[in-house]
Amino acid sequence: MRVLVADNSRIHTRLLAEALKRDPQLEAIPFESDSSGLVEAAASQRVDVLVVSSNLDEMSSRGLEIVHELRSVRTQTKSVVLLASSKDEFILSAFRSGARGLFTKNDALELLGECVLAVHSGKIWANHHAMAVAVEAIASGPVVRAASSNAMHLLSKRELQVVWALAEGLTNREIADQLGLSPHTIKNYLFRIFDKLGVSSRIELLFMALSQPAPGVGNDPKSDSGKITSSDKDLALTETSARAGIPSAQLALAQLCFAKGRDAKDLVEAYMWFLVATERASTAGQQITKLLTPEQITEAKNEAYLQLSRLGTDSPGLVKPVSPSPLLEKLRESDSGPS
């Protein structure tokens, strides 16, 4: 296993490299040049793991910039960051840059080799405090960055298939088996999908896939009837997304078939896609509940009941809340307006 080491001084770099060489599984290479050439060196030498100080060239976050740059150039290389600070925001910045391992100055040097091996095998290495910081950040709620309404147009048919398989909760290896590809190829697909859609995690991607409108669907602003209209190209794009497993596209295709309604075949196809969409959405909903606490699930059900009540829609699947949650109370207050 090739390991490139870059600490904030030549002496420290050499010491770390020598410590790693004690493990016969590791070929440690000290990097003693200017940090501007670090990414190129890691890529050209086909490094498996980069061990880099967060502080390089007297810049506190230069190492994190290197990790981020390397991730876009060579996804096969995983990174371990030697943290110069244990502040929460610094820990989060290291994770966001793409670091898979965080090693602090308080950790025993003998554990660095174990850390490198763990990260290379696909695991996350961090102490309890760092993991608690990361979990708390996730628990605060994923922030899905805004994407254009046709964001799914950016994805190929194969990428859409990967998106839905991921939404089903499958691992990279399971997705690879399902699509007849290698896990490495699936990982590359995910990096491209993340870049195209502007997301940085599987959770963000899941929420975006379920919230994005299907491509080519909408009311024709020139139509007095307000019925759904679509060009042949739009219909083809919608069908591609539907067959790739995106619930919003499947529901949209059901609406398009129903709007077309030329004969019984159109209505049968409309109902078929409606059944597929609801089943897929139900599966995705089960995956989402795994990310929530019981209190958050109750919160969501209460809000859903209120939203359906506003629309005048019966909701037999949702029980009217007996003890309204704080969120429900705020929504009701906003409905009633200032007193």
Describe this structure in words.
The protein is of the alpha/beta class and 339 residues long. The chain has 3 domains: 2-139, Response regulator (Rossmann fold); 151-289, Arc Repressor Mutant, subunit A (Orthogonal Bundle), CATH 1.10.10.10; 294-336. Helix content is 55%, strand content 6%. It contains 15 helices and 5 strands. It is elongated. Mean pLDDT is 76; it is low at 142-149, 213-231 and 330-339.
Short note summarizing the structure:
With 339 residues, this protein is an alpha/beta fold. 55% of the residues lie in helices and 6% in strands. The protein has three domains: 138 residues, Response regulator (Rossmann fold); 139 residues, Winged helix-like DNA-binding domain superfamily/Winged helix DNA-binding domain (Arc Repressor Mutant, subunit A); 43 residues.
CATH architectural name of the largest domain = Orthogonal Bundle
Determine the structural class based on helices, strands and strand pairing. Answer: alpha/beta
Q: How is the main sheet built?
A: 5 strands, parallel
Average pLDDT across residues? 76
CATH superfamily of the largest domain: Winged helix-like DNA-binding domain superfamily/Winged helix DNA-binding domain
For the termini, the CA-CA separation is 68 Å
Number of helices: 15
Uncertain runs with pLDDT below 50, 5 residues or more?
142-149, 213-231, 330-339
Share of helix, binned: 55-70%
Strand order of the largest sheet: 2-1-3-4-5
Stated plainly, the CATH topology of the largest domain is called Arc Repressor Mutant, subunit A
Shape: elongated
Compute the number of structural domains.
Answer: 3
At the first level of CATH, the class of the largest domain is: Mainly Alpha
Beta strands, count: 5
Strand content: 5-15%
Radius of gyration from the CA trace?
25 Å
Along the chain, the helix and strand elements come as EHEHEHEHEHHHHHHHHHHH
